[in-house]
Amino acid sequence: MLIVKRLRETDKILYINTLYYKMPTKILRVFVFIIALLTNLPSDANTLLTDSINSDNNELELHKDSVWVDKVTGRIMHQQKLVGIDTLVVIKPNPIKALYTDLGIDAAVLAWDRFVQTREYSEITHNVLHQHFSNKPVWDNDSFSGNQFAHPYHGAMCYNAARNAGLSYGASLFYPVLGSLAWEYMCETNEPAINDMLSTGIGGAAVGEVTNRATDIILDDSKVGINRVIREMVGIALNPVRALDRLLSGEMWRVSPSRGKRYAPQPYSIEMGLGYRNMKEEKGNGDNLYVPYIDFYFNYGERFSSNGSKSKPFDLFSISLLANIDSNHPTIGIAEISGRLADIQIKNPDSWSFDFGLYQNLKYVDHYSKNSPKPHNFSMISEAVSFGGGVYAQRETDKICLFNDFMLSAVPFGGSSSDYYTVRRYNYGLGYSIRNTAHFTLNQKASFGTRIYMMQLFTPNGYSPEKLIQKIENKELINTMGDKGHHLIFTQSIYGLVNINKNIRFNIEYEYYRRCSHYKYHDNVKALSHEWKCGFIYSI
């Protein structure tokens, strides 16, 4: 148990941090008495302990979050408080620190690959560097999860190297691009890849900013015990760069009456779910899959500003994540991020309120089954680089609250299932997407709605079947976006949520997936599948 005791002498304050397990009160009093003598502070241990405990209890009460239920979404919302000596931590911008941390991330990963895992691609030589800088970048054929999920996470660390050094959102956008270029050209023997630079450099910025904000919500320097341990562990997973900085500076275990926040508190909600999915192919192999899952939802910020202040990039964002509990399916089945960059609001409490915004999105869906032969009819979708404009409309009444959220996005870089390309199981492409969510909440007890998603993806280059076979047989470099053609992807889901108690909701959802792929060198393909999902969602 981590105990923090406050000793006072006029304006002089000493904080004593000690780790002990069920230490007897007499021993603790002697310990405080000795410290008091050494520091020339008052030695009345009883007075010190009583004053410290009362002070800590008062601070704990003041630090309680504000909690309420959002009438429109039905979610339990929290907002942290800054009280007393709580002040926002302001970090002086240090671009030099950001630079060496950014490049140090690449160097650390390279060292791990080279000396611990002894990966062949990490054996960099002068000749390799010469080839990289002499030749044009290519489209690589790595895994879907590696290219579309892991690379944005790598970019997030490079981005947070800058944010952790005090740089602004705009200035930090340069660092994942730099980190990606450094990795592609100087940290692996594989040819520099266009797709990696896009997903790491641009997609990584979106992942970086949401993990940066979420980490600031989670970390709290005033907490102790198991609560503190869990917060620090979550912080390590979300933002390893900030975690390393806290470790080296001692902040990770230092206890303070201040919460140590870097951003003004924003409303947020955290939800976790557990359930079962049933996915069935309508065409093709007719696979019928049953998969248990856990999911996670994090919503941050106010849709409509309560104080009239101008919103900043990512003052509003949402994260959703679904993980399969089955070794025959990808660990991460769904990961989505949508962050607002700028907006114009029209508020009308007695009628419809509107929010016209610009957003950056990241979408990753992989329902591929390892047991299913290729091709398959389950969804595989990526928007690694996506920017859109949206219109959000909201109406509140005494019993019914509803909103409609529409967005049209440009997708400079995305991905979709491949039917014929034998080198990887997906195609790269560019295009556009449309999203729309209509949601109704009744008396804050039940919600239902529908989500529609459509993406048109174009793959402008690709080999003919004969040329692809020839390249494979001759072991030549295969550099293409996939099967030349275009793909129309459509999904629609209908869902319902029923409150069981204050924190638990029952969730049931049906999703329809359809893909129409038109190829230049192959027969066209239509894929169709259905999914039922039900489970429970717990609101923290």
In words, what does this structure look like?
- It is globular, with a radius of gyration of 26 Å.
- Strand 7 (317-324) and strand 8 form a beta hairpin.
- The two termini are 24 Å apart.
- It is an alpha+beta fold and 540 residues long.
- Helix content is 29%, strand content 37%.
Shape: globular
**Strand percent estimate:** 35-45%
Poorly predicted ranges (pLDDT <50, ≥5 residues)? Answer: 1-57
Number of strands: 16
Mean pLDDT: 87
Per DSSP, the total helix count is: 11
Main-sheet strand order equals 5-6-7-8-9-10-11-12-13-14-15-16
Distance between the termini: 24 Å
The largest pleated sheet is described as: 12 strands, antiparallel, barrel
Helical residue percent band: 25-40%
The computed structural class is alpha+beta
CA-based gyration radius: 26 Å
What string, H for helix and E for strand, traces the elements in order? EEHHEEHHHHHHHHEEEEEEEEEHEEE
Strands, helices and their partners?
Elements: E1 2-9, E2 12-19, H1 25-38, H2 45-62, E3 66-69, E4 76-79, H3 95-116, H4 126-134, H5 144-163, H6 169-172, H7 174-186, H8 194-218, H9 225-238, H10 240-249, E5 268-281, E6 288-300, E7 317-324, E8 332-346, E9 353-366, E10 380-396, E11 400-417, E12 426-442, E13 446-459, H11 465-473, E14 485-499, E15 504-519, E16 525-539
Antiparallel strand pairs: 1-2, 3-4, 5-6, 5-16, 6-7, 7-8, 8-9, 9-10, 10-11, 11-12, 12-13, 13-14, 14-15, 15-16
